[in-house]
Amino acid sequence: MALSRQTGLRGPADSHGPRLHDFRHRFAVGVLLRWYRDGSDVERHLPELSTYLGHVKASDTYWYLSATPELLQLALQRLEQQQLQEVRP
């Protein structure tokens, strides 16, 4: 909290406001959004993001997929497209 005040993210009397961890979350969500929008194989790249974030297991990174409505929507669209391709001859 002291660092966020020193950098100007919070005022001297603010009890709430951006935390440094919020930037980490935003970074992870931004990477995932870019991968989905670019059509990348998110499952294949997820271990890379997990390693970068310092997660021991890739499953710890899956949380970010459900934490953001836009990511959830993109993941759902990708799943629906895959299901359609499996049904078509």
Describe the structure.
It is a single chain. With 89 residues, the protein is an all-alpha fold. It has one domain. It has five helices and no strands. The longest helix has 19 residues. It is elongated and about 65 Å long. The model has no long low-confidence stretch (mean pLDDT 83).
Q: Mean pLDDT, rounded to whole units?
A: 83
- What is the β-strand count? 0
State the major sheet: none
Low-confidence stretches: none
Strand content: under 5%
- Percentage of residues assigned to helices: 55-70%
Domain unit count: 1
Class from helix and strand fractions: mainly alpha
Number of helices: 5
- Terminal CA distance reads 57 Å
Rg, nearest Å: 17 Å
Principal-axes shape call:
elongated
Reading the helices and strands in chain order gives HHHHH
Work out the oligomeric state of the chains in this entry. single chain
Q: Keywords for this structure?
A:
elongated, 89 residues
How is the secondary structure organized here?
Blueprint lengths: L1 H5 L13 H19 L3 H12 L9 H4 L2 H19 L2
Helix pairs in contact: 2-3, 2-5
Summarize it.
This protein has one domain. About 65% of the residues lie in helices and about 0% in strands. It has helices at about 1-5, 20-40, 40-55, 65, 70-85.
